[in-house]
Amino acid sequence: MRIDILTIFPEMFESPFSHSIIKRAKEKNLVEIHLHDIRNYSTNKHRSVDDYSYGGDPGMVMTIEPIALCIEHLQSENQYDHIIYLTPDGITLRQSIANQLSMSKNIILLCGHYKGIDQRIRDKYITMEISIGDYVLSGGELAAAVLTDAIVRLMPGVLNDETSALSDSFQNELLSPPVYTRPYDFRGLKVPDILLSGNDKEIRKWQNEQAYEKTLRLRPDLLNEA
After folding, report:
1. In terms of CATH, what superfamily is 2-152?
2. Pairing of strands 32-37, 50-52
3. Which neighbouring-strand residues pair with 2?
4. Could you tell me which residues are beta bridge partners of residue 190?
5. Nearest residue to 41 (alpha-carbon basis) of 11, 12, 78, 7
6. Residue 183 and residue 161: Cα distance in Å, rounded?
7. Which one, of 83, 90, 94, lies nearest residue 146 by Cα?
8. pLDDT tier at 183 (50, 70, 90 boundaries)?
9. What would the pLDDT profile of 113-147 be if each residue is shown by its tens digit?
10. What is the pLDDT of residue 159?
């Protein structure tokens, strides 16, 4: 998979993409992540990418030209399954969306700033708009990093145990059951005996019951949607 990220702060991605799962995926050549500074596509001498909003509203708006030029340059070299804009008014990111996007070959992620981007970019180029929650961040970079991580970890060969992702929260509209490891007894807090029984059928039954109970208690909305 190839992921192209359009941003005015490419340095913000250096740390999250240099560790853990994404680092391993890059080293295995399972994913290519390319960062593009939108300012490099500005046609004015100050490399500015924002201007005042028509209509007199406060705040600046990212201008259409440098974003359009960057997208068109990339499209001249590759075909993209999706061009995604990270925005608070997009559809809320869910596991099912990450599952779908993990099967893509090439995607573009556009990070907005200020009051957002010129609407004409959204109308002409964007194929999907995604939000990571009902709140506003300073820019789309953190959201793009979250989305990238959610996608990349699902790709075949990225995780050491590929079946691990199948038991994650939200994969079957349930939260994941509690997990335990050694020691068995920590200051009187013991691991449930069923997990040491060796009876796979009963263990799976217990885990399903725990997942359902946890979801009912913490996220009943997931059960309603299912």
Report:
1. SPOUT methyltransferase, trefoil knot domain (3.40.1280.10)
2. unpaired
3. 32, 106
4. 185
5. 7
6. 23
7. 94
8. very high
9. 999 999 999 999 999 999 999 999 999 999 999 99
10. 87
User: How much is the pLDDT for 225?
Assistant: 77
195 phi/psi in degrees, rounded to 5: -75, -15
Q: What is the rounded distance in angstroms from the CA atom of residue 107 to the CA atom of residue 105?
A: 7
Contact 3, 32 (CB under 8 A): yes
Q: Could you identify the residue written with the tokens 């994913």?
A: 31
Q: What Rg value do the Cα atoms of the chain yield, rounded?
A: 21
Convert the chain into a string of H (helix), E (strand) and C (coil).
CEEEEEECCHHHHCCHHHCHHHHHHHHCCCCEEEEEEHHHHCCCCCCCCEEECCCCCCCEEECHHHHHHHHHHHHCCCCCCEEEEEEEEEEECCHHHHHHHCCCCEEEEEECECCCECHHHHHHCCCEEEECCCCCCCECHHHHHHHHHHHHCCCCCCCCCHHHHHHCCCCCCCCCCCCCCCCCEECCEECCHHHHCCCHHHHHHHHHHHHHHHHHHHCHHHHHHC
Per the listing, tokens 């995607």 go with: 107
Section 49-70 average pLDDT: 95
211 within 8 A of 168, measured Cβ to Cβ: no
CATH architecture observed for domain 169-225: Orthogonal Bundle (1.10)
Domain positions in the chain: 2-152, 169-225
d(CA 186, CA 191): 9
Instruction: State whether the Cα torsion 37-131-51-120 is positive or negative.
Output: positive
